[in-house]
Amino acid sequence: MNQRLQQQLNLVLELDRLKSVLRRTRIQCADDRLENSAEHSWHVAMMALVMQEHANELVDISRVLKMLLMHDMVEIDAGDTFVYDSAASKEQEAKELAAAQRRFGLLPQEQGEELFTLWREFESAQTADAKFAKALDRLIPMMLNFNNQGIGWRENGVTRQQALTVNRRIDDGSHTLWEYAQQMIEQATENGWLKA
Questions:
Q1: 196 located within any domain
Q2: How far is it, in rounded angstroms, from Cα 155 to Cα 116?
Q3: How far apart are CA 1 and CA 157, in angstroms?
């Protein structure tokens, strides 16, 4: 087997470990089970296919899908951080950067560099593609929490203001989806799922 193929296969096998990285969000069909990062990546990529028309700007759906399918692969090394934990989120950036360099470094150089650049684009959220991808990445856990009677928010004492602040970047990628997110936040607050 040639070296290039072996490097690619090694990464593919490593990616299987993403299935064991648990998030704080419960799946909707069984609120006693946490979703894993591989499930999240697939779910948010499917969401991109369905919701593309709601992006604020024209997006290249192929690039958006690539970002969403690989954005959390760094969690194999760095773990998942609860989005409402601001202190842990700051530390997480350095851990994820190191993990990305290591993971993408497993691939043939030009392929690894291309995907690492795309991952950094997603993280910086400055392009239309990255803004839309980030918007969806923030929205899907909100939807699952909302449809599970806010269990993740209630368990962690999340406030209405935290939900608004942390998820405001949805507006950068989709004004339509941000309006929907705000409606969920207000309804969750009225229901007592988010602290007022």
A1: no
A2: 35
A3: 53
Confidence of residue 36 (pLDDT cuts 50, 70, 90): very high
Q: Report the CATH number that the domain containing residue 117 is assigned in CATH.
A: 1.10.3210.10
Mean pLDDT of the chain: 94
> What is the average per-residue pLDDT within 144-158?
93
CA separation, residue 141 to residues 24, 40, 134, 154 (Å): 9, 9, 12, 14
**What's the pTM value of the predicted model, to 2 decimals?**
0.94
Contacts of 155 (CB under 8 A, 6+ apart): none
Give the domain extent around 37.
3-190
> Any residues with CB less than 8 A from the CB of 19 and at least 6 apart, and which?
36, 37, 38, 39
pLDDT at residue 29, as a whole number: 74
